[in-house]
Amino acid sequence: MDKMTLFRSSMSSIFVRMLRVPKRSTGVVFSQRFFHNPRTCADLRYTEQPKVEEIRIPVSYGEIAGKWWGPKDVRPIVSLHGWMDNAGTFDRLIPLLPHHMSFLALDFAGHGLSSKIPDGLMYHAMDNVYMLRMVMQYFHWKKISFMGHSMGSLIGFVFSSIFPNVVDFNIGIDVLKPHIMDPNKVGPRLQKEIPLTLKADMRNRDGTEPPSYTYEDLAYRLYLGTHKSVSIETAPYLLDRNIQRSSVDPNKFYFSRDSRMKFSLGIGWGQEVNLEQAKRMVMPYMFLKSKHSPYYEHRKYYNEFIEVVQKNNPFFELHVVDSTHHMHLTEPEKVAPIITNFLLKYWKHDALNQAMPQ
After folding, report:
1. Could you give the 3-state DSSP secondary structure of residue 25?
2. How wide is the angle at C-alpha 84 spanned by C-alphas 79 and 86, nearest 5°?
3. What is the Cβ-side half-sphere exposure of residue 10, based on CA atoms within 13 angstroms?
4. Mutual orientation of helices 271-279 and 299-312 as an angle, nearest 10°?
5. 78 pLDDT higher than 90
6. Residue pair 87/112 in contact by the 8 Å Cβ criterion
7. Which is the most buried residue in 166, 171, 213, 329, by most CB within 10 A?
8. How many Cβ atoms from other residues are within 10 Å of residue 144's Cβ?
9. ∠ CA 177-182-187 to the nearest 5 degrees?
């Protein structure tokens, strides 16, 4: 039996959970059930499934989509996904965390169910920092707390180091900071990617439908595209907010995220700036590093940053987890106890006294 046959066989058990796609949905909806061990921490109400509600935050170019988990009268921990992922990345982790706490998992612009940025523009990582300030303004928050994975972890660090006075705590998963690129590769990379961004932009304007595939093929492409970090079994949690049914072939689907995101611009800070910003990370701060994922840059830059934070922040925690880059999605049971212990030390009840914006 070849690999694709094995894959299709394993996916068949997932398909039985598929429901009819609602008219307002852009993807496949799954019936998700989460099971908790009530002995883990009975006094924190782990025994019931936390409520989750779709949230839309208006912005000038459309809306930012998200999933609000838990009580609506408590300021949530803003949960930020990785590059080309979406809010579904936390669907298996958040139900394992304390239920008296709230979490708001957002889709970055161009991802998931959030609007794309206007035509004619390129995505830049710093745009997400600005977006988070807009979210704070919309909800009238004076403070904000972060839990981020990959690109979301990077954005959480950048925001926290710029505005340390408004950040209660920061939890990062498997991307520590802006990476340091080989200077010889910057020019050639931009030379290649700017024209590709223009091509993707024109395709958006023309309304051209991207290539479509069977659901099994899309899941397998996601599995391979993440270097097998997202398992076959957990791929649907990301596909749920990331695909649309083809208008050409109703039996196929296509990725609905903005293809301009493939060529987005990073923060671009040098190591000197990273180290200075590291000194500003004075809030409770925890970073989880996967044992089986790369550092995405020379290891020395990672070590230098860790040394600075450890020297300047007595509330910093570093944990190495025996898992892949998407540890929180594929093996949340390994991550949840670490995050829970951190939250029990530093989370504070911040009541929302105002009605939710309409």
Report:
1. coil
2. 35
3. 17
4. 20
5. yes
6. yes
7. 329
8. 25
9. 110
In this structure, the strands spanning 167-173 and 285-290 are parallel
Here the tokens at position 255 are 């990725």
Tell me the pLDDT tens digit for each residue of 154-163. 999 999 999 9
Identify any residues that bridge with 18 across adjacent strands, giving them in sequence order. 30
Give CA–CA dist 184/218, Å, rounded.
35
Is residue 287 a contact partner of residue 317, using CB atoms and an 8 Å limit?
Answer: yes
In DSSP terms, 274 is beta-bridged to none
Residue 6 pLDDT > 80: no
Do the Cβ atoms of 207 and 232 come closer than 8 Å? no
The phi and psi torsions of 298 (rounded to 5 degrees) equal -60, 135
**For 155-194, how does the pLDDT look when each residue is reduced to its tens digit (9 = 90+)?**
999 999 999 999 999 999 999 999 999 999 999 999 999 9
Neighbours of 157 (CB within 10 A): 28
Q: Per-residue confidence at 352, pLDDT binned at 50, 70, 90?
A: confident
- The beta strands (E) that lie in the chain are given as 52-59, 62-69, 77-80, 103-106, 144-149, 167-173, 243-245, 253-255, 285-290, 316-321
Encode pLDDT of 206-245 as tens digits.
998 999 999 999 999 999 999 999 998 999 999 999 999 9
pTM of the model: 0.86
- Would you state the pLDDT for residue 50? 80
Beta strands in 200-249 (DSSP E): 243-245
Which residue is listed with tokens 């390129």? 122
Across 44-84, the runs of DSSP E, i.e. the strands, are 52-59, 62-69, 77-80
Q: How open is the CA angle 198-200-206, to the nearest 5 degrees?
A: 105
In degrees, to the nearest 5, what angle opens at C-alpha 60 toward C-alphas 59 and 61?
A: 95
Averaged confidence pLDDT in the chain: 88
Name the residues annotated as catalytic: 150
**Contacts for 162 with CB less than 8 Å, ≥ 6 apart:** 129, 277, 280
Burial degree of 154 (CB within 10 A; 0-12, 13-18, 19+): buried
